[in-house]
């Protein structure tokens, strides 16, 4: 199956942030807000899902997590879906994801880390959509009250995929293509 690449992200594009696995606790909400602001500072419009803020390691009931993820994957105005980090419960969503609907929709960048691979891998293998597993947005260098600019990997986190360039929108490559590391 050929891999379908979405259009490269550009300032003004919408990025959906949802937590299909672990939520963000009160203690880490400042880090989450910082990561979201880094993306806004790059010129992106950020759509923050309702299930991000959670007091436990699970952001919400599995049906609600799957619904929010599917909503973002199928919304043509959202050009990327970015969970704040992984977790332990992403695999719970697999039987609730409508991969046929995802396959028929316009490709969207799916960015994930750690546990996110439990739904990204089947998504890529069954739909032909590419995914990207860089450092998680909430794993950025962060300290409360810091006046220092973010490090280079944060400043450039949303501008291009690995390798520095993205294929033209609508192009395909063999599924065996590996991204540069």
Strand content of the residues, in percent? Answer: 5-15%
- Counted by DSSP, the helix tally is 5
N-end to C-end Cα span: 23 Å
List segments where confidence is low: pLDDT < 50 over at least 5 consecutive residues.
Answer: 146-181
Tally the structural domains: 1
What do you see in this structure?
The chain has one domain (3-173): Murein tetrapeptidase LD-carboxypeptidase, N-terminal domain (Rossmann fold, 3-Layer(aba) Sandwich), CATH 3.40.50. It has five helices and seven strands. The chain has helices at residues 29-41, 62-74, 99-104, 117-127, 152-155; strands spanning 3-4, 14-17, 45-48, 78-81, 109-111, 131-132, 172-173. Residues 146-181 have low confidence and may be disordered.
Relevant terms:
181 residues; alpha/beta; Rossmann fold; 5-stranded parallel beta sheet; two-stranded antiparallel ribbon; 7 strands; 26% helix; globular; disordered C terminus
Indicate the topology:
Blueprint: E1 3-4, E2 14-17, H1 29-41, E3 45-48, H2 62-74, E4 78-81, H3 99-104, E5 109-111, H4 117-127, E6 131-132, H5 152-155, E7 172-173
Parallel strand pairs: 2-3, 2-4, 4-5, 5-6
Antiparallel strand pairs: 1-7
């Amino acid at each position: 199956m050929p891999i379908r690449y979405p259009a490269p992200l550009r300032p003004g594009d919408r990025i959906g942030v949802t937590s299909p696995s672990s939520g963000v606790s009160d203690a880490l909400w400042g880090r989450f807000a910082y990561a979201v602001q880094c993306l806004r500072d790059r010129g992106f419009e950020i759509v923050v899902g309702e299930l991000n803020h959670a007091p436990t390691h699970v952001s919400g009931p599995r049906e609600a997590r799957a619904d929010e993820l599917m909503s973002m994957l199928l919304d043509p105005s959202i050009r990327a879906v970015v969970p704040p980090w992984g977790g332990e419960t992403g695999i719970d969503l697999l039987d609730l994801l409508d991969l046929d609907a995802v396959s028929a929709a316009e490709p969207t960048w799916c960015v994930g880390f750690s546990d996110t691979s439990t739904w990204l891998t089947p998504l890529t293998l069954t739909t032909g959509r590419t995914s990207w597993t860089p450092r998680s947005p909430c794993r950025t260098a962060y300290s409360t009250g810091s006046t220092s600019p973010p490090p280079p990997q944060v400043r450039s986190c949303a501008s291009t995929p690995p390798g520095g360039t993205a294929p033209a929108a609508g192009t395909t490559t063999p599924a065996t293509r590996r991204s540069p590391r």
